C-alpha cells in the first residue's frame, strides 16, 4: 500500500477510535455528500414534478416519505435539497473563512493603524448577530443562490479574522518572517506564502464550525422567503411549505426536512469539536 495512503488511513482509524462522536459526525457528512452527489440516481421522482393526484399523500410504498401540497415527492426533494444546502454551506464557509484569514493575517503583519482600523471594522460587524447581518445583506442584494452565499459569508468574515489574527500575531515575530523581509520578499509573498499556511489548523476548525451555521442560516433565510426561490429543492423551503394548516394533516412535511437540518448541523458541530481537540496540542489525548 502506498505510504501516504497508509498513513492517512492510520490517522483516520486513530481518530475514529479516540473520538467516536467525531467519527460519527464525519460519517453523517460523507453520507450527506454522497446523497447530494448521487441525487439524480437515488431520487425516485423528479423533485420539481407536480402530481396533483397525490397531494399530501402519507408515507407509504409509493412515496416513502410522503408528498407535499403540490404532490412532489418529499424524499426526492430532500436528496436534491442536500445539494443546495451543501453547495451554499461550503461556498459561503470557504469564502468567509478565506477572506477572514487574509484579513486577520494582514492585520497581524502590518499592525499599527491598519490593524486598528480593521479591528474596529470587525467589531462593528461582530455587534450584529449572524442572522440579523445575513438578513440585512440579502435584503439589500436580493434573493438567489449567490446572494444567499454572500449574505452568509459576510457575518463569518469578522469571526474568522479575529481568530486568525490572534494566531498570526506570534508568527509575525518568527525568524522565518524576519528572514523573508531581509531577503527582500514582498508583503504579499510573506502573507500568502509564509504566514497563511501556518494558520491552516485554526482555519480548518473554523471551517467545520461555520459549515453547520451556514446550513442553518440558509434554511432560515429560505424559510423566511429571502433565500433560494421556488421551485428549487431546499430544506428551508420545504419547512416553509409545511404551513400551520398542514401541521395536523401532513406532519411529515415538516418532520423530515427538520430532521435533515438537525442532523447536518449536529454532524458538523461534533466533527468540528473533535477536529479541534485532535489538532490542539493542549487538548490532544496522549
Structure description:
- It is built from twelve helices and no strands.
- The chain has 286 residues and is mainly alpha-helical.
- The chain has a single domain (19-39, 70-279), classed as MetI-like (MetI-like fold, Orthogonal Bundle).
- The two termini are 27 Å apart.
Q: What does the oligomeric state look like here?
A: single chain
User: What's the alpha carbon Rg, rounded to whole Å?
Assistant: 22 Å
How many E strands?
0
CATH superfamily: MetI-like
Regions with little confidence, pLDDT below 50 for 5+ residues: none
CATH first level:
Mainly Alpha
Strand content: under 5%
CATH architectural label? Orthogonal Bundle
Q: Topology as H/E string?
A: HHHHHHHHHHHH
Helix content: over 70%
Shape: globular
Main sheet characteristics:
none
Mean pLDDT score: 83
Number of helical stretches of at least 4 residues: 12
Q: What's the end-to-end separation, in Å?
A: 27 Å
Q: In terms of topology, how is this protein built?
A:
Elements: H1 3-18, H2 20-37, H3 39-42, H4 74-110, H5 112-126, H6 130-141, H7 145-171, H8 175-182, H9 187-195, H10 200-223, H11 235-241, H12 252-279
Short description:
This protein has one domain (19-39, 70-279): MetI-like fold (Orthogonal Bundle), CATH 1.10.3720.10. Helices cover 72% and strands 0% of the residues.
Keywords:
286 residues; mainly alpha; MetI-like fold; 12 helices; 72% helix
